Amino acid sequence: MEQQAREQLKLLRRLEKVISETEFSWSLCLVEEDQSRKLNELAAELQRPFSSTGDR
Which tens digit of pLDDT belongs to each residue from 9-38? Predict the structure, then answer.
């Protein structure tokens, strides 16, 4: 098993432990996304001109 996979598994086990030790009813959803790309998309959208018709 490669180092990154071991680290990810270790992190997931720690997360599972923390969740199981709380009194809350947790619902967990993990999503992988490129956050830097998302930030760049947001910045580009914020630089667009304002739409007077409200369609953008």
Answer: 999 899 889 888 988 888 888 788 888 999
